[in-house]
Design brief:
By secondary structure, the chain is an alpha/beta fold. It has two domains: 113 residues, Roll (Urease, subunit C, domain 1), CATH 2.30.40.10; 287 residues, TIM Barrel (Alpha-Beta Barrel). Helix content is 35%, strand content 22%.
Length: 414
Amino acid sequence: MASLLITHIGTLVGLHPKEQLMLRGPEMSHLPTLEDAWLLCENGLISDFGTMDALPGKLPNDLETLSAEGGYVLPSWCDSHSHIVFAAPREEEFVMKIAGKSYEEIAAAGGGILNSAAKMQQATEEALFETAAIRLNDMIQQGTAALEIKSGYGLSVGSELKMLRVIRRLKESFPIPIKASFLAAHAFPIAYKNNHQGYISQIIDEMLPQISAEGLADYMDVFCETGFFSVEETDQLLTAAAKYGLKPKIHANQLSVSGGVQIGVKHQAISVDHLEATDEAAIAALSNGNTIATLLPSCSFYLGIPFANARALIQANAPVALASDYNPGSTPSGNMNFVLSLGCIKLKMLPEEAINACTLNGAAAMELSRETGSITKGKKANLIITRPISSLAFLPYSFGQSQIKTIIINGKIR
Ligand code: NIG
Ligand code: FE
């Protein structure tokens, strides 16, 4: 494998030590940098870096050189929450929303997750793979190089397994780490509207054993929300998943204070995600803990719902990550550059905090921070090279405009 030397890096960003696997509280604004730098990639990994006045004398033979021309070099985005496997977009609901209908009203009228589930029944694995691959390629070009993908539009044994097999194929076909979360508990299928325990039994007795036997999921997700899965039902599902070694990463407090945060913490969730409706008790539950608060500001932006209280979470010493939530209903975008901007503009995170939340803490929310998420020797050479911008703040400041010049994946120019 050829080696790559990147020279003339204006600023190398995110040089966290390898022991630093997650950031919280005041650590979140700490983003170590190196000016006027070079970085060497060997065997797909970051092998060394330093300042231009001290370029290494001995370099590998098969070396390719790339000048960053004064641009910034950052670790690639680590997007820990997405639903990119879906059968069709939902522009019809977008138009209903413009006309004044809320997300809950659209769902109650047969739209929402059930709309996507109906379309999922018909979709072939091939078509699902092809459309998800297009979305994933776009995301990679926008700087993402680690991704979590959820099932949850299947809502039946066959369709949930179909979605998870598509995710497995994406894992096998793309050069970035991908984690799969099992989200059959996303909504109750119409047939089980008045028989919640019937569907929960199907998840526990039929889906979990098969998924575990085929090794199709890394995590268990539940949409813990009024009108979806209650705290008791979430508790029951997370307890069952634990028997198969599936740790929770759950949807909590999106539309209302659901108690999802506390039940997630009780089950030692890797992350509790959304938190748009968070109260003091939820913040207290996350304070000084290891469960990551994953905030999804593009979802708030698109649905017009409140933005999560990132400042209170950082103040409470909770680890905060940012992710896209890319899905056809509440967030039809997987652009982490926009998430970064919203993190600063709407969540009032400092650029350094928001970058850490999109990189190291995002990696931690997928248990990947030993291998990616910072500029650290031995980690994956997954990098973003920017144009020669005036400062780091220019990145989130210039919202909606890409400052990315080159993407490096596993030490190779993409
Ligand atoms: O994270 N809220 C639950 N799940 C998705 C949206 C699902 C959909 O509308 O298709 C979310 O926002
Ligand atoms: Fe989601």
